[in-house]
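For the sake of transparency, this paper describes our internal protein records without simplification. The remainder of this section carries one protein's record, kept here as part of the documentation:
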Amino acid sequence: MEATTIKVSGNTKGELDKLRVYKNESYDELLRKLLHIAKLAEVEPKLSQKTIKEIKEARERIKKGEFYTEKEARKILGV
């Protein structure tokens, strides 16, 4: 993959850092997610405030490490 450098303000970098789901998430991963969301917003209906709130809460739980791994979920579900 060819890499490039982009210039962003310190404030923009700080805002991007706040959107990271996990500590080692790269800016490339983050920007790809944001681009995907922007593209979906063009064709998909807008999310309700309830859904947005639930997504934010889920992201906070992930940041705190409050989630099941795939292996744990399979064991719980008996799959």
The chain has four helices and no strands. The two ends are 37 Å apart (CA to CA). The helical segments are 10-19, 27-43, 49-63, 70-77. Residues 9-45 form one domain.
